[in-house]
Amino acid sequence: MSRECLVWSRQGSGLRFIERVEMFRFWINGQRLRLVVVGLVVLTAAIVTACGSSDDGGSASTGAAVQPTATATVASPPEATATEIPAPSESKQADPTATAVVVATQKSVATSTPAATVMAAATAEVADQFDKTRFVDISGIIDPTNFGWPRSIETSEGVITLDSPPQKIHSLSLGHSEILAALIDFDRLTAVYSFFVDEEQSNIAKLSADHKMIGFDPEEVIALEPDVIIASRFTNADTVALLKSAGIPVARASLESTALGNIPNILLMGYMFGAEARAIELADEIEARMQFISDVLVSDAKPRVLSVSKWTSAFAAGSGTTEGGIIEQAGGINAAADSGIEGHQQVSIESIAAISPDVIIVPQPLDSANVFIEELTSSPALAEIPAVKNGAIYYVPPRYHTTLSHWNVRGIERLATLLYPSLFSGVIFEDFANYGE
Amino acid sequence: MQSRVFLLAIEYDSSVKRVSTGSTVLRRLFVGSLLLVSATILVAIVAASVGPFTVPFTHTVSTLLDLIGIGESIAKPTEQAIIQSIRLPRIFLAFIVGAALGISGGIMQGLFRNSMADPGIIGVSSGGATGAVVAIASGASTISTLFLPLFAFIGSAVSMIVVFLIASAGGRFSMATLLLGGIAVSSFLGAITTATIILTDDLNVQRQIIFWIAGGFDTARWESVRIAAPIIGFGVLIAIFVARDLNLLLVSEDEARALGVRVTMVRNTLLVSASLITGAAVAFSGIIAFVGLVIPHVVRLVVGADHRVLLPLSALGGGLFLLIADTAARVVLSPAELRVGVLTALIGAPFFIFLLVRSRARLL
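YS: structure for the whole thing
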């Protein structure tokens, strides 16, 4: 356990802690389930042999009970699909002098209202009402000219073919669930996990609060009989293998730590679930928000910002982390990365003194953040660093700064406002909307 | 694994037979202590002068001299603050904890006549971890910074008492039952700790427990030193005081009794003092493996198995070793840090293997 956690804490690069906990829990439960599955297979084989039957046996014994709508075709495992960050779309000029700019909160897409009874034909009709060229270069879409059903996608878990828009979708990560909440009716998600309802960590806490909740046993996932499962790059390979062996199609989609980097993933999700128009709308909104930030940020003198949290020991977010990416996209210099720290690394008070940041942000729950901020401000060793002298140590909501979904754009917007209050004076940023809001 | 344990046991026994005369003991103790204390002072000065924040060596030395009343520091206020409030408490705590683990390991290996015994063998470390888990999960650790070590220490003490009661069941104390009881209680408490990590919905609790268990000195403060030092110092002194009787116990309990040793009292005194100083060490540093297991072996390979020499030098050696490991942990990835437990194994294991191989070659 502790070795696993240490590895997590050191690898750090963009890894969200809750994703790691999820991986570990699935691994633990996976071992138990594996024995059960093997036992069932052996038992079935014994019965089949005894009866002299010529039944297929094997995974069919488990899969027969599931009968997913979509069928899985596992191809030879390709290399992990790398998504390319598209060039930002043409500049949507924001007026930096505006006294009150509200970055539009997109409402639900009028043309698509997926419900449990939506049929392939109806969805195909809606499919004509969006810019299909947006999906041409999206990694994972096998035939970007096919917007009817069935349609196939390919991830590192192989090719899966979806006969109709999946109505029972299970996401194994919070990041993908946050994206899906923006694209489709949340009721299409079969279940959530306990940490989804944590308002400090999750951007879909309210939606999740009234949703079916399950534990971390893969059996519970199989029992949900989902049409398709979305795994992230952090999901344990054994867990995925178990779920696939139960006959459920699994797609392993990417989760990127940069705002624009997630757009291909969002479009892929839209394509998979017949929510293409909404996916384009969300992608456009992300690009517009990021364009607005970059248009306003004209300052050359960038502050050095340190993102640091304390969980018994203090950990700084260096290069390759979500928090570090947010700092850079908000017009700051990631002080930890600037000092040579890669990923999330343990630091001491002395390390913080050596890094000497202009601004410190603390992305952790408010109570513990306040205790840590008090420790930072009262330490005599930090009395001379600019962040302490200028009173520039801030709590920031972890749900914006540690998420791997589009919600990290909100972290960028809030931090940019914090770093450049005069440039963003009068600007009001709104939260992203979820589907149907 | 079994054959290695056996070999170590044979070697251990052969070392016991090399019980020295009084003057040899004094000479070994004096020379060993002199070398280790000198090395510790040198390493401490180096440790006080290196770190992520650059402090000129002359500034460090002048600050250290100023602290002992010689001259005046020429360091800037920030440099003085870093040396005095961050580096020095950490140096002292690392040394104290290393000393505690080193001597506890020596005592446990002697009492159990087992080369694989470590300071936590009777459940003290697991008890400390469970106490810390209770402090974190209940929120007590956020009320006061002292509650976490306090709960950990109480956990260590309670687990020690429970294991003692198990070993004394039926009115007759048994070392074998003590060992097995310790393993059982450790497993039970370890399961509680793991279950808490897995079952809790609070991610913050999970993170705090995980990082506490990993062990380290990055949160060292003078308050930690002020509390840990008297407990550990007292335990170390008691252990050294009864070291001669431990030698006799190792020959045979009956012979020791015939020579006037109050066997039960000596054994219990050693067990309690070793457990309490381990508990105090765990309370302030988390669980740091390897030091308590290997340092006594290293010292034994060099100076023999006479506990009058072995125990004090294990304390000094453990302190020096952990100080070196923690200093390296602070600087190798600067400004980031490594967990000290990683370096204790990285530095210590090859050195131990070297001594082991050399020693076997000599015997052959």
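YS: worth flagging: Chain A touches chain B at residues 1-2, 5-6, 9, 17-18, 21, 24-25, 28, 194-195, 198, 201, 311-314, 316, 318, 339-341, 345-351, 353-355, 364-365, 367-368, 371, 379-381, 383-384 (CB under 8 Å).
IM: good catch. Also Residues 118 and 346 of chain A are 50 Å apart (CA to CA).
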